Amino acid sequence: MHKQLPDLYAALRARAQELPPEGAHALYIAGRRCGWATHAAADALQGAEHIETDHDSVRIGEGMAPGPELDAVLERAAILLRDANCLRGWRDELLDVVAGDDKLGVMERTALRPFGLPTKAVHLNAWTPDGRLWVARRALSKSTDPGMWDTLVGGLAGSGEDLETALVRECGEEAGLDEPDLTHRTPLRTILRIHRRLPEGYQVEDVLTSTCVLAADASPANRDGEVMEIRAIEVAEAVRLLAEGEFTLEAALVIAEDILRRQAAGEIPA
Questions:
Q1: Any idea what the Cα angle at residue 75 is, between residues 192 and 29, rounded to 5°?
Q2: Residue 41, H or E segment
Q3: In whole angstroms, what is the distance from residue 108 CA to residue 212 CA?
Q4: CA–CA separation, 13 vs 191, rounded Å?
Q5: Cα–Cα distance, 230 to 13 (Å, whole number)
Q6: DSSP secondary structure of 133-173
Q7: Are residues 75 and 174 in the same domain?
């Protein structure tokens, strides 16, 4: 089963690279090209103040500079999408809106996918000292991938949040792990940028991961209600679940990459 892992990882990476949704509109914010608006999102924004739409583009805040006025326009755009049933819920969480390395503003988290705006996801891939992998099963109430297996910790960085800080926060919320529990943790590294079609839009996401060996007596426990089960499993079981599609795509990429990396370094048996 382990010998199949390089091919499986290559297939997972291929799955993570898709073209924008059919009919998507090039998105410009403050004159900067930064995403892909779904056709439904473009329709929802027609006629809105400070927003221009045509058959192939959406322009939000044309001529504006980053600041409170543009943030207000972005907030109004998110509300219009919510009212048009283009969003999967409403989280009251702000994420940065960026073009390249430049921050343009902030927007409600659930609106970023319909606009194809980039996000950053941080993951902790946690191991036991004897070489088992900690994994978590997502709650059935989750709006995306309910009931699927996931990395022990994974989440999006909030607006203005340092990525390492975001990971420590997520570790506390999702696995009951605080900074002293994460002493043996590697710095975050970027695996790839996902481009994937989703029912609500387009996922453009940098996937970052840190590897950690938890203490032998560690007992991760969920605090935020988003996880229904946490287990430590053998590598062979993890690979089987990967092959059977039981992990979310992001988790599968993180776990496969980490197993291959640790095998190459001789940290776990090949």
A1: 55
A2: helix 39-45
A3: 31
A4: 10
A5: 26
A6: EEEEEEPTT-SSSTT-EEESEEEE--TT--HHHHHHHHHHH
A7: no
In which residue are the tokens 């950053």 written? 120
Domain boundary (77, 99, 115) is at 115
Question: CB-hemisphere CA count at 13 Å for 203?
Answer: 21
Q: 269 lies in a domain?
A: no
Tell me, what's the pLDDT at 270? 76
pTM of the model: 0.93
Q: How far apart are CA 221 and CA 231, in angstroms?
A: 10
What CA–CA distance (Å, rounded) separates 55 from 52? 11
Task: Give dist(CA 43, CA 268) in Å, integer.
Answer: 52
Distance CA 148, CA 247 (A): 6
| 54-111 tens-digit pLDDT | 999 999 999 999 999 999 999 999 999 999 999 988 999 999 999 999 999 999 999 9
